[in-house]
Amino acid sequence: MSIANLFNQVYNIPSIPKLVQELINNFDNENSNSREIAKKLQMDQALSAKVLRLANSARYGAGRKINSIDSAVIILGFDSLKTLVIASGVTSACKNIPGLNQKQFWRTSFSVANVAKMLAKLARQDGDVAFTCGMLHNIGDTLLFLAHKDQMLHINSVLQLEEAAMTGVSKSALEQTQFGCTYMDVGAELARRWNFPEEICLAIANQEQPEKTGTNVLYPLLINLAVRIHNSISSGKMPAEVVRDLPQNHLADLKIDNIKLLEQLTAMLQQEDDIEAFLS
User: Domain range for residue 271?
Assistant: First the structure.
């Protein structure tokens, strides 16, 4: 099955709200200011309410009650606010996917996104780009569930078997066999249709094989490592074990120091989980 055929099969393809896209573009505008950002946010009551909930959540709470968008923009700053807008826009675009465990899916996406942003800062790369790559790294699964719910549920059940873990069977391999494409291929195309920058689309497409992107290897590497870290933490490994087991050549390529990574990862894991704020 071609990617085009898959998109043709899906009657209602998720779309990023236009306002969210405009806000994302505004953050890259050197001439934009907090008043303009607040004004655009206030045009969408649902998005404004979600941003305020997130701004007051455990992860982003500034130690005081934030009760207006103007205050959120000023107190949180562009960096944190952009993160909230991206996460809010993506989660809002892909709600109520039949068969998909929404809470688990977005918990994974948000976790990978936060780890990717942390890694990017250690590697002196753009944290917002890395966060967006992380939020979108598995977005292709939403369309695969919309088009092939039963097959996707079967693939997930196979991956949970002990035999799959022992033989190293991957989700992408099973999807390629079943559909002729993977969540990475579909996710990259969806990101293009959402008008995200090509470096993000390439990162999604090549996250399992970063070397395929040639010179643009940094963000695929960041997603690759972020997914590995998320999976290791989810399996019960301690931070020191997680860092020890990462591909050291990938860390070297990104110029990430193991000790600093361990410190940042330990601090991140001590933060409270606020995924409910994104799903509300």
Answer: 3-14+98-279
CATH code, domain with 141? 1.10.3210.10
Lowest-confidence region among 63-77, 101-115, 223-237: 63-77
State how far Cα 216 lies from the chain centre.
Answer: 19
163 is a domain residue: yes
149, part of any domain: yes
Number of domains in the chain: 1
Q: Tell me the CA distances in angstroms from 122 to 34, 116, 126, 260, 264, one per residue in order.
A: 27, 10, 10, 8, 9
Assess if residue 27 is contained within a domain: no
Gap between the terminal Cα atoms of the chain: 35
Q: Are 232 and 241 in contact (CB under 8 A)?
A: yes
- Residue 70 to residue 77: CA distance in whole angstroms: 11
pTM value surpassing 0.85? yes
Residue 85, domain member (yes or no): no
Higher pLDDT, 269 or 260: 260
Which residue reads 């942003």 in tokens? 117
CA dist 69 → 57, 132, 170, 231 (Å): 15, 22, 43, 35
Residue 209's closest CA among 218, 220, 219?
A: 220
Phi then psi for residue 204, to 5 deg, are -65, -45
Summarize the confidence of residues 230-239 as an average pLDDT. 92
CA-based diameter of the chain, in Å?
56
pLDDT tens for 112-143 read 999 999 999 999 998 888 998 999 999 999 99
Rounded CA-CA distance 194/146 in Å is 18
pLDDT digits over 148-175, tens only?
999 999 998 888 875 656 667 789 999 9
